[in-house]
Amino acid sequence: MKTTLLMAGILLSVLASGQQVAKGLTAANGTFIGFYQYTPVDYNPTGEKYPLIIFMHGMDERGNGTTELSKVTVNGIPKYIKAGHKMRFFWNGKWQTFLVLSPQLSKNYGWWYNFYTEEMIKYAKANLNVDTNRISLVGLSLGGGGVWDYPGEKPSNGRQLNAIAPCCPTCQTNNYCNLADAKLPIWAFHAINDGTTQANCTSAIVNGINTTCNAAEKAYMTMYPDGGHGVWDRAFDTVYRYQNPNVYEWLLGKDKSKPVNVRPIANAGPNFTISATKGYAYLSGAHSSDADGKIERYIWKQTSGPSNSAIVTSVSTNGLTRINSLTTAGNYVFELTVVDDRGDFVKTSVTISVTSGVASNIPPVTEAGDNINTAISSTTLHGSDSYDPDGSALTYKWTKKSGPAVFSLSNDAVANPDLTNLLLGTYEFQLETTDAQGATTQDIVAVYSSATMLPNRLSYFKGNNNAGATKLVWATAQEQDNDHFEVERSTDGKSFTTIGIVAAGGNSMLQQTYSYTDQQDNGGVWYYRLKLVNASGQTTLYSTLVRIENNQPKVRLEYFPNPVVDNMSVLINDEHKGMLQLRLLSMDGKAILQKQYMKKEELITTVMNVKQLVPGIYLLEVTIGDQLHEIRKVVKK
User: Any signal peptide, and if so, which residues (predicted)?
Assistant: First the structure.
């Protein structure tokens, strides 16, 4: 395969838009393929691998691959890149950037031949730092037909891809059970009133894959009620004007090295009735669940009923929102979308009936949180997702129902108490909530403890940093049949590795003191714990955690109110000096607001006016000098 760089004039024209570069290659069958290659400005050819999108254009964008290559940027993803989009999205807690290859179909062909996709995949694997488990194929119109065609030819083609997204595709003739056999994730888009390509053909393909072929990975289909043929700006929308999650987040969640995802279960709670006099209510998706992962996002929207209602928190990570302005009698229907960490989403609905008369009290909904696994002797119970549908304030009462006799609860009358001094075994704790009218409900959470920390067994465990090394010291009040301590270290307080072994005293009724020095400490935040192992090789004790923060103090950042309506105050109080940059980013990474200051003092305060911003979730980014220090979530009401 020969790769060719096209003429300098074309190259210069695309460099102006970033890193969308004109390239060309000669395919194995002798056909020349001109294409655009997009890599981000900070592309690293040897670091973390990048997901890849192969984009296939429509009929009118065909060309010779050289002087006509710019036609590829007329529609869809290449158009967005040309306009400055960085193909960077915040998903699963971090920013991720796509590489994009956009080949041009020759005018000699009336449809996309599969060798185009094959050559793009071969080129990417040979020349780019690509994540081969996340290669996506997307396209519009004629290109959408090409997206169907490649995996439809044979299952092995589909296994090259992590997902496909055809938009308003031409109707292709294939064995679509090949896509089901490949367990290929699919999200198809069309408009009912498309007068150019057949929406009923797309529906038939999707239904056939899901039913006739009995696909383990069920295909999604978004059928717009209007928009005609040109709905690709809806399907490939880079924000959330038309769907949430957007197609890019969905593609990022797909990884063909992982088993077929179990989709989440959406639960919006039961229908209920309130009085218009009250005028507000609460909805929660907290009873939703995900069997093989976690729920990443909850989205609420009204789908029918009087138009005067106002959703306070339409997008969140806990599913709880207040609905205001329920002052007109009628049935308000609210749709809940639950998105899991693999990008899959499920919808359900709940109805709030508003009556002009008196409504009965609705009992609270008690949420004791997910069951907890802990390898140490402490954890936190989580009851703060409990709520009262008709808006009463709640009181809380935690009670242990079963389990070992030894434990300590910091406060049994708060939503999220600390739980300490756990022994090995299974505990069950009941949370009871009570509303202002005296109605109560209960929920139970299990705590699976693999810790065996006995009272007064370990007298203390502490540490400090000096000259780049961390010294840990501890003492035992008594020991029985002990062999050694394993010193464990972690960067997040969850995943630990053993960094050293210290011999134990064996058997003693007297206090024994020990120490260990970690010479490999390179700064930052570290967590340490001890594991005591007996002569039989069994773990008999886990200590509490010691947190050491060395030489890299974080920015002390406060911002309020959050959620914010118009003005948000930002306070930064730390020792860093230099050029301070505050940026408010959209969820796709675009800078919406920006402020800069020369920070000479420890304390600096400012106000950001966000009144004109669309309600939703944003990210507040704090940079001092050339170092990124903080990214925090901001909710605009």
Answer: 1-22
